[in-house]
């Protein structure tokens, strides 16, 4: 059976729930229904052996009901007649107990919805053996080092219907691999998320992780302070995630808890950020049925927009940007598909000749080994007189939401760079830094030319960025500090 046939079944469920609401709550009731099916599969490995292969398939129904001036939501996983009737009844009961909702934004009107990215059927139907092949290639490539990680595939399809007559369907698939190699107490990491399982080269990822692990041996301790840095894409993804949640969130902006000032040049001119859900592996509409589209957040350094759902957009007079999602009424609408657009000029990757050749089409090159895992990073590192190469951030926490001051730790490899060459591995640091300030005017010294999509949650969220060279990053002490 074709996976696309499932969308028809999901649309039948969604329209059936709308009809059920109309018959039980009356024609004046307004309802919107989202039905999603998820097929998730994960192959995990540790100690260089596969130890777990799991898969699950689930269908979820989300109902929002506005009746008699009151609004309530409900959800369930039963799609038989009794289960759907129970969902409608308990949501109606919740609405009767809810306070009046004078700011109800109404329903999405019938609107054309884009088809979204093409779905690779081979990824949607991937077998455990196909994921295991990538794991085997990764383990073989680390050449005796200890390896751990996962290879996953995901398929999602969804259908939306509301009582205003709007319907939408869509589907998406993705594959991801995340692995580490360990040499003694040093770890090297390689990650990639793609639309097609065929685009995951386990051998190339394993070779990169192993080379970085070996290069991270015998780290030295450096004093805290401000250092010039080259951040690899995994670390840059943490910047994008926190900028999204705390900065480009329309609810936080309305509450004056965001750094964002649309129309102001808050970032370096090299920075262009776009929330681009149709770029890859995401349903083409949101929880409220609003079509998704590319939303420029920062254009050549100038903040241009924040994200809204229907309620926030109505209150701001801006309309929805297609960011309705579970929890947006509480935490706010969050852009989940941010791209930091890669550099295009020679100035963006000063020293590219040192990389050995033109930038490879993929994020991993067999010709680049050791601490520097790809030509982009090599080009950026080549321009540094003295600074640090950082692989990854983790355990990041926000200290000041308004200025987006974040503290966290480096992970999976830090190296001292002197005169364009990584000379020593460095012990992990704790840092405290304002992310917008670090990306501010005059602080971005270079962008790589190849953006790498990083694995994130399996709900269609992802962040895509090239390597990034920054003038200053504030390291406050050792990782245990």
Please give a structural write-up.
Residues 346-368 have low confidence and may be disordered. The chain is an alpha+beta fold. The protein is built from 10 helices and 19 strands. The protein has a 6-stranded antiparallel β-sheet with strand order 3-2-1-4-5-6. The protein has helices at 3-25, 81-97, 121-124, 128-141, 202-215, 233-246, 250-254, 310-316, 375-382, 435-438, and strands at residues 30-46, 49-67, 70-76, 146-162, 167-183, 186-194, 225-231, 273-275, 295-299, 302-303, 337-340, 386-400, 405-418, 421-425, 429-434, 444-447, 452-454, 462-465, 468-478. Helix content is 23%, strand content 35%.
Key attributes of the depicted protein:
single chain; 481 residues; alpha+beta; 6-stranded antiparallel β-sheet; 6-stranded mixed β-sheet; 19 strands
Compact overview of the structure:
The protein is of the alpha+beta class. The chain has helices at residues 3-25, 81-97, 121-124, 128-141, 202-215, 233-246, 250-254, 310-316, 375-382, 435-438, and strands at residues 30-46, 49-67, 70-76, 146-162, 167-183, 186-194, 225-231, 273-275, 295-299, 302-303, 337-340, 386-400, 405-418, 421-425, 429-434, 444-447, 452-454, 462-465, 468-478. 54% of the residues are buried.
| Adjacency order of strands in the biggest sheet | 3-2-1-4-5-6
Shape: globular
Largest sheet data: 6 strands, antiparallel
Number of strands: 19
Distance between the termini: 56 Å
Proportion of residues in helical segments: 10-25%
Radius of gyration over C-alpha positions, nearest whole angstrom = 24 Å
| Uncertain segments | 346-368
Structural class: alpha+beta
Name the average pLDDT. Answer: 92
């Amino acid at each position: 059976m074709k996976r696309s046939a499932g969308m028809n079944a999901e649309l039948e469920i969604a329209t059936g729930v709308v009809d059920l609401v109309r018959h039980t709550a009356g024609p004046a009731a307004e309802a919107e229904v989202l039905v999603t099916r998820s097929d998730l599969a994960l192959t995990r490995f540790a100690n260089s052996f596969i130890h777990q292969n799991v898969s699950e398939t689930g269908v979820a129904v989300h109902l929002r009901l506005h009746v008699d001036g009151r609004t309530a939501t409900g959800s369930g996983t039963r799609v038989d007649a009794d289960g759907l009737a129970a969902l409608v009844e308990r949501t109606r009961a919740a609405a009767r107990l809810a306070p009046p909702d004078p700011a109800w934004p109404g329903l999405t009107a019938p609107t054309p919805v884009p088809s979204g990215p093409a779905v690779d059927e081979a990824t949607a139907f991937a077998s455990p053996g196909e994921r295991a092949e990538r794991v085997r290639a990764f383990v073989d490539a680390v050449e005796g080092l200890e390896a751990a990680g996962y290879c996953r595939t995901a398929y999602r399809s969804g259908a939306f219907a509301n009582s205003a007559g709007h319907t939408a369907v869509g589907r998406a698939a993705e594959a991801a691999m995340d692995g580490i190699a360990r040499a003694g107490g040093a770890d090297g990491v390689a990650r990639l998320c793609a639309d097609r399982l065929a685009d995951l080269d386990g051998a190339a990822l394993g070779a990169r992780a192993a080379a970085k692990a070996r290069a991270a041996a015998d780290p030295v301790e450096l004093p805290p302070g401000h250092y010039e840095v080259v951040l690899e894409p995994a670390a840059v993804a943490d910047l994008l995630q926190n900028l999204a949640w705390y900065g480009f969130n329309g609810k936080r902006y309305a509450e004056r808890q965001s750094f964002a000032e649309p129309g102001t040049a808050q970032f370096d001119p090299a920075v262009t950020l776009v929330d681009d859900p149709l770029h890859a592996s995401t349903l083409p509409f949101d929880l409220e049925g609003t079509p998704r589209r590319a939303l420029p957040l920062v254009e050549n350094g100038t903040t241009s927009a924040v994200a809204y759902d229907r309620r926030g957009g109505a209150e701001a007079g801006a309309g929805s940007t297609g960011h309705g999602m579970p929890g947006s009424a509480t935490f706010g609408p969050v852009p989940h598909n941010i791209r930091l657009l890669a550099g295009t000029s020679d100035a963006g990757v000063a020293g590219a000749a040192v990389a050995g050749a033109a930038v490879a089409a993929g994020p991993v090159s067999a010709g680049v080994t050791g601490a520097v895992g790809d030509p982009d990073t090599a080009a950026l590192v080549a321009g540094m007189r003295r600074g640090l190469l950082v692989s990854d951030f983790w355990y990041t926490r926000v200290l000041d939401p308004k200025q987006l001051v974040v503290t966290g730790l480096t992970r999976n490899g830090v190296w001292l760079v002197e005169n364009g060459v990584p000379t020593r591995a460095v012990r992990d640091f704790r840092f405290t830094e304002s992310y917008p300030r670090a990306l501010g005017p005059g602080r971005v010294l270079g962008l790589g030319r190849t953006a790498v999509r990083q694995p994130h949650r399996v709900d269609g969220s992802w962040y895509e960025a090239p390597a990034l060279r920054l003038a200053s990053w504030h390291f406050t002490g050792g990782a245990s500090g």
